[in-house]
Amino acid sequence: MHESDSIVIIPTYNEKENIENIIRAVFSLENKPTDAEHPGKCFHILIIDDGSPDGTAQIVKRLMAEEFSDRLFMIERSGKLGLGTAYIAGFKWALERDYQYVFEMDADFSHDPNDLARLYAACAEEGYDISIGSRYVSGVNVVNWPMGRVLMSYFASKYVRFVTGFNIHDTTAGFKCYRRRVLETIELDKIRFKGYAFQIEMKFTAYKIGFRIKEVPVIFVNRREGTSKMSGGIFGEAFFGVMRLRWDGWTRRYPKMS
Fold first, then answer.
1. Nearest to residue 118, comparing CAs of 106, 107, 108, 128?
2. Are the CB atoms for 42 and 2 separated by under 8 Å?
3. Which residue, 55, 123, 171, 188, could crosslink 160 as a Cys pair with Cβ 3.0–4.6 Å?
4. 120: burial class by Cβ within 10 Å (0-12, 13-18, 19+)?
């Protein structure tokens, strides 16, 4: 029995090239001590698949049945319902179980599974409520992205900081660890955004409530397999959504920290 206090949520849509490898990479961390004081860490995985027509869910089902029935789980949804709603569904699933640390991670290896232990340590050992795998806290740590996309992402985070006054360098990062109490306190059904702005809204809401956030420097590597899900509409939602968040910061009554 592979028990764990941590669940890694991975949303998928057409990730057949990556899904088995990323699952095996996360589970292999159990046998990789980071140093003498930190033995390997067991993580569970929850896949949220939005009806991938390429057979992603079938690969996950095979792995669940043949090898990982006690630590690999999946929610299948009927179609592309948005990144934010996928994570909200995963958060609620995790809160119904006894997980104390809940992670967000992409399926395409743009987030290095080896960094999960560092994000976990920031929360479990250093006492932070949220740890963010940050591309920009120590320069610009992005590999193999087109320059236009690097600049768009970097200045998007600058824009969010300018408009909201939120002192996080990588406001759009999607590689994170939450303590359970953060997700219990945030009113998940009131999170509005479904795309890129979802990541900003979750961080900003936690910040306004008063949770402690740490940025952990990571290197972001552009996907090698499969197709990016980014679009102009996703960036548009983020651009205008930030203005709405700034207004909320002035007018909304946020829940109290639990």
1. 128
2. yes
3. 171
4. buried
Which residue bears the tokens 């961390």?
29
Collapse the DSSP code of 215 into the 3-class scheme (helix H, G, I; strand E, B; otherwise coil) and give the result: strand
Q: Nearest-CA neighbor of 134 among 117, 113, 157, 155?
A: 157
pLDDT at 226: 47
CA distance 84 to 90: 10
Q: Which pLDDT belongs to residue 36?
A: 61
For 153, the token pair is 């992402």
Tokens of 154: 């970097």
- Select from 126, 127, 145 the least CA-distant residue to 135: 145
Task: Supply 74's token pair.
Answer: 């999946």
Model pTM greater than 0.85?
yes
Residue 155: other Cβ atoms inside 10 A: 11
pLDDT score at 12: 96
Distance (Å, rounded) from C-alpha 216 to C-alpha 131? 7
If 0-12 CB within 10 Å is exposed, 13-18 middle and 19+ buried, where does residue 87 land?
buried
pLDDT beyond 90 at 4: yes
| Greatest mean pLDDT range, 22-26, 31-35, 152-156, 216-220 | 22-26
